[in-house]
């Protein structure tokens, strides 16, 4: 049983609910895997006393019905693709050229429309009839697109890596999942980087144009050798690493700057990780491979060019925006930068009269980094599978604005996800109207190791359950944290370790709402919070605790909670009233504090009782309070 030898209590210590039957053990901090938003989620380490003063709980009847399917659609889109439509297949808009193999995957699942020349306005007016949108780098998926989608757009697939053309904040706010295809074009981009590096060093493009113009200028196009030269890779991620590997093969000395790259990956490739200044000041060639973000925007500017080795050569297959293009023109004119080879531009296509593009020491390509047959087929399949998965309500391994949850974790958490949402829905309905909800505490009891319980899904579903009954907001895993923050909800999570089999991820989930009045006083625990607890039993969600009362009711259909004086005949009495009004009881459970004192009756009902039925229940003399809750 319990081993509570470790007395780690982080302030404030949490007192376990009297309902909790599981004995606690030393608790540990629940790790929050990649919690990416700034939502005020706090997590505390606690140790609960090893008492268990649960009132006796007994099921009055056997389960008459089982809960409906607990199959998880964690994205929980606002409307069911299949409902109310003569054409249940989703509509997938592909706005840029996508490989045939990917289109095949999409066509097997939905109606695919390939419209490659949409203006921003056309896209905005088209989008409200689309469930998914697939883009490359040429389509700007702006806030306006999400607004005009009017809730229908469920997923944006970026057939490639860079997602700087998608307004991620807007996507998240609208609960639209964004997925990308981050691996299939890595080699293509690296090969293009090397092609530009060597072509630039040997003036291939300029010499080609010269010969085609009828000239033969051998001395004008004398190049530089790359062997023995120092190449600085800025951004040592997938593409950067592959460029490094190839440059090593060319006999270059490779250094890299990347504040987030693991040193062992660099070491394994024989690459030294250095500071930004060291990289730019020692390199003969600088190759850019970082994403365009607010931090990297125009990171190559006048100040940077003042630090480089005179005559440096620059390659950019990342994003045009990481360079201040006017500053680069100045550096080229002054000879500080000898040459540049650019695949990407701040504005694409760049203006015809662009000084940078027209510069004689600049080699350009029209964003061709990912454009090999092989990469495009790979990217198309990668994105099509991610989009189809997302449309089915699954999370993709390449989700950009939602946690990436492996399929096996999803399937394991599936019944707990259903439980979490139902607990959220119940808890919020127990709040008396008019009282503002601010602080929600979620307590997970689990035998799993701290790193082995990912609660993001559960938290999102509790948030959904709490918010949706009291507002018009639609909440899913993508926008749960954002929406909670918008509504001023503070959700804190706590994990209490228990001695039990770690076979199941969670033993119980408790939802507490603080500083509010309840319309059902018995739901308020000793600590003064509305508190309910649930468990998954036989794969189905059950309510196991209301306030200080233990109950056991399958969370199916709707629920009536009554507090009564514990005396014989109550179950029959209320059961008769419901039966007379044709309301089918699916489950009943009574929990009490002391014999013949107060008891709580939890009654699962298939149909919603009408006002008259509820009044009759309320009129039973021994019933002190009752509440009807929709699940
Ligand atoms: N021209 C083209 O057709 C293509 C362009 N790209 C571009 O290349 C970029 C990199 O792609 P991947 O290597 O696949 O992405 P990645 O995510 O694997 O690598 C990016 C690396 O940049 C690093 N980084 C982030 N901020 C940085 C900073 N301030 N300074 C230095 N490094 C920083 C990251 O730590 C990461 O290691 C993409 O974001 C995309 O914009 C990618 C594929 C094709
Ligand atoms: O994958 C990327 O980030 C790219 O830049 C490739 O862009 P593209 O799909 O060729 O428009």
Automatic annotation (TrEMBL):
Segments of skewed composition (Low complexity): 10-23
PROSITE patterns linked: ACT, D_2_HYDROXYACID_DH_1, D_2_HYDROXYACID_DH_2, D_2_HYDROXYACID_DH_3
GO terms for cellular component: chloroplast stroma
Alphabetized InterPro entries for the sequence: ACT_dom (IPR002912), D-isomer_2_OHA_DH_cat_dom (IPR006139), D-isomer_DH_CS (IPR029753), D-isomer_DH_CS1 (IPR029752), D-isomer_DH_NAD-bd (IPR006140), PGDH (IPR006236), PGDH_ASB_dom (IPR045626)
GO molecular function: NAD binding; phosphoglycerate dehydrogenase activity
NAD found in the keyword field: yes
Superkingdom of the organism of origin: Eukaryota
Primary location: plastid
Pathway where it operates: Amino-acid biosynthesis; L-serine biosynthesis; L-serine from 3-phospho-D-glycerate: step 1/3
Family: Belongs to the D-isomer specific 2-hydroxyacid dehydrogenase family.
Protein name: D-3-phosphoglycerate dehydrogenase
Source species of the chain: Carya illinoinensis
């Amino acid at each position: 049983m319990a081993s509570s030898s470790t007395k780690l209590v982080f302030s404030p210590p949490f007192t376990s609910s009297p309902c909790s039957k599981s004995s606690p053990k030393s608790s540990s901090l629940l790790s929050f895997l990649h919690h990416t938003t700034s939502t005020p989620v706090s997590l505390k380490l606690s140790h609960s006393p090893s008492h268990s003063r649960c009132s006796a709980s007994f099921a009055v009847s056997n389960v008459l019905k089982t809960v409906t399917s607990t199959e998880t659609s964690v994205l929980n889109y606002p409307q069911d693709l299949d409902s109310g439509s003569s054409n249940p297949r989703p509509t997938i808009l592909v706005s840029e050229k996508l490989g045939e193999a990917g289109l095949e995957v999409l066509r097997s699942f939905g109606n695919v429309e390939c419209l490659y020349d949409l203006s921003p306005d056309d896209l905005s007016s088209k989008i409200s009839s689309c469930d998914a949108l697939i883009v490359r780098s040429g389509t700007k998926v702006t806030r306006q697109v999400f607004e005009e989608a009017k809730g229908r757009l469920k997923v944006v697939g970026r057939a490639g890596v860079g997602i700087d053309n998608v307004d991620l904040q807007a996507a998240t706010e609208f609960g639209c999942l964004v997925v990308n295809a981050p691996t299939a074009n890595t080699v293509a981009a690296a090969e293009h980087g090397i092609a530009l590096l060597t072509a630039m060093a040997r003036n291939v493009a300029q010499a080609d144009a010269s010969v085609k113009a009828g000239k033969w200028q051998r001395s004008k196009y004398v190049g530089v050798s790359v062997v023995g030269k120092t190449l600085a890779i800025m951004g040592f991620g997938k593409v950067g690493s592959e460029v490094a590997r190839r440059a090593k093969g060319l006999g270059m000395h490779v250094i890299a700057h990347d504040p987030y790259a693991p040193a062992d990956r660099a070491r394994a490739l024989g690459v030294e990780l250095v500071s930004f200044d060291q990289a730019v000041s020692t390199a003969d060639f600088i190759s850019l491979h970082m994403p365009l973000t607010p931090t990297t925007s125009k990171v190559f500017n006048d100040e940077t060019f003042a630090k480089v080795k005179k005559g440096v050569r620059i390659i950019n297959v990342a994003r045009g925006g990481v360079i201040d293009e006017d500053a680069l023109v100045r550096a080229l004119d002054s000879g500080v930068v000898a040459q540049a080879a650019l695949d990407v531009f701040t504005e694409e296509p760049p203006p015809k009269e662009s000084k940078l593009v027209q510069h004689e020491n600049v080699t350009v390509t029209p964003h061709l980094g990912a454009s090999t047959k092989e990469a495009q087929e790979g990217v198309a399949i990668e994105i099509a599978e991610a989009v189809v998965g997302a449309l089915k309500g699954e999370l993709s391994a390449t989700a950009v604005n939602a946690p990436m949850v492996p399929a096996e974790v999803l399937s394991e958490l599936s019944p707990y996800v259903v439980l979490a949402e139902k607990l959220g829905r119940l808890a919020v309905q127990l709040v008396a109207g008019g009282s503002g909800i601010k602080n929600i505490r979620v307590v997970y009891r689990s035998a799993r190791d701290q790193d082995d319980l990912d609660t993001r899904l559960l938290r999102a579903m509790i948030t959904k359950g709490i918010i949706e009954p009291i507002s018009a907001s639609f909440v899913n895993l993508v926008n749960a944290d954002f929406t909670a923050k918008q509504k001023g909800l503070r959700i804190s999570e706590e994990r209490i370790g228990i001695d039990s089999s770690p076979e199941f991820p969670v033993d119980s989930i408790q939802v507490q709402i603080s500083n509010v009045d309840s319309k059902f006083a018995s739901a308020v625990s000793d600590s003064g919070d509305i508190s309910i607890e649930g468990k998954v039993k036989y794969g189905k969600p059950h309510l196991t605790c209301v306030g200080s009362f233990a109950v056991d009711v399958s969370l199916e259909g709707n629920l009536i909670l009554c507090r009564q004086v514990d005396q014989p005949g109550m179950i029959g009495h209320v059961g008769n009233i419901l039966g007379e009004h044709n309301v089918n009881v699916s489950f009943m459970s009574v929990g009490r504090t002391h014999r013949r004192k107060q008891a709580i009756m939890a009654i699962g009902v298939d149909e919603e009782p009408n006002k008259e039925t509820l009044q009759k229940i309320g009129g039973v003399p021994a019933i002190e309070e009752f509440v009807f809750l929709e699940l």
